[in-house]
């Protein structure tokens, strides 16, 4: 294994993180804010120093293959979370290292769970950095390097595959670097469009910037305690539209914009995604309206549509305290937390297409019980799902369920009620943010003990990296030459 090559590439990751902090640093320069300035300068300096050390120790000899690619991806997210915590600590925004790591990991994994109690009292530069970590995590730090750097060589293919999962790879260009650049441009276009629309409808530069970062990444951080309820209905509607857009497989945008192909219309996963959103919003609206939570039908329709979009795409924004909604609405919203968005999007969760494939695998096994000699091919639309893909999806869903269940058991230790523990585990492993009960949309995660926060940090990483890459590091065979 070429560890020195891995270390040298990680140096580039750290350099990029150092450079990224220049943007939020501007928000602390004018008007000058000493806390934010010192915190961000410390974070950028530490990232640059560590990056320089990695570049000095590592070398460029040899190729980057599968195992090295896995190490680059896993340690990129680990280093990003650690370095991203420094501005919180150095500025005094967060006192404890575990809490700072939790907030940083929640940002880079686009989870959106927070331990902050006084968000609006933090320096503007730190809040911009907080949202920016989600924007960087949304497209995937490693994809940025595949897109912007050519020195990765053949190993770029492995990094790209790990960062952009999904069965639509055949739509993408054969040259990985050009594909990554195309996806990055689409991401930038969505970001710029939302930013301009929010400015047009009256948002301040600060509000448009922070919420653009958190929406397109489906992250959910807001610098306001009342989240998106802080804004007017037109601005809330803009956020709703771009949450849904960010939950779509980016490969479909690529096919539509670059190749003139209309898979975005025929795609099975997209149609199910939109159908789930429409049906869920309708039934939740009916439930809260009939229960008298919203006395106006228009309010019930909008609140339900927003919360359904927010939880289906695993963004986690809120316009209402859905913890006070009736039980059926709760059950529907929790179900959406399991589902997530489309594969190849910035959304978390199990993903629509994986659940479709998993359901077809289960039905095939039922059929084979009665017709054991039958040959049953799994299809989605007019596409045949390869057996290795079906097997991989089944394994991932199993690991995902075990991760959620194991996390819920650990978080239930002590005085934590089972609803809080179960939804906190689900919110972190699905990279959503809010749950129910003590971790509802108007609450936070500050009350958990230090070790429980570390458990949730691990769940965030597992959910963002989709288990296989992290678990591979635990296998002795992975480290053998």
Describe the structure concisely for a colleague.
About 65% of the residues lie in helices and about 0% in strands.
Which whole number gives the mean pLDDT?
88
Strand residue percentage: under 5%
Distance between the termini: 6 Å
Largest sheet: 2 strands, antiparallel
Low-confidence stretches: none
Listing every helix as H and every strand as E from the N terminus to the C terminus, the arrangement reads HHHHHHHHHHHHHHHHHEEHHHH
Strand order of the largest sheet: 1-2
Helicity level: 55-70%
Write structural notes for this entry:
The protein is mostly helical. 65% of the residues lie in helices and 1% in strands. The chain contains 21 helices and two strands. The protein has a two-stranded antiparallel ribbon. Helix 1 packs antiparallel against helix 3 and helix 9 runs antiparallel to helix 11. The radius of gyration is 22 Å and the shape is globular.
Record the SSE blueprint.
Elements: H1 3-20, H2 22-29, H3 34-57, H4 66-91, H5 97-108, H6 124-139, H7 141-148, H8 156-163, H9 176-200, H10 205-216, H11 233-246, H12 250-259, H13 263-266, H14 268-290, H15 297-312, H16 327-339, H17 352-370, E1 379-380, E2 383-384, H18 387-411, H19 418-429, H20 450-465, H21 468-472
Antiparallel strand pairs: 1-2
Helix pairs in contact: 1-3, 1-4, 2-3, 2-6, 3-4, 3-6, 4-5, 4-6, 4-8, 5-6, 5-20, 6-10, 7-8, 7-9, 9-10, 9-11, 9-12, 10-11, 11-15, 14-15, 14-16, 15-16, 17-18, 18-19, 18-20, 19-20
Keywords:
481 residues; two-stranded antiparallel sheet; 21 helices
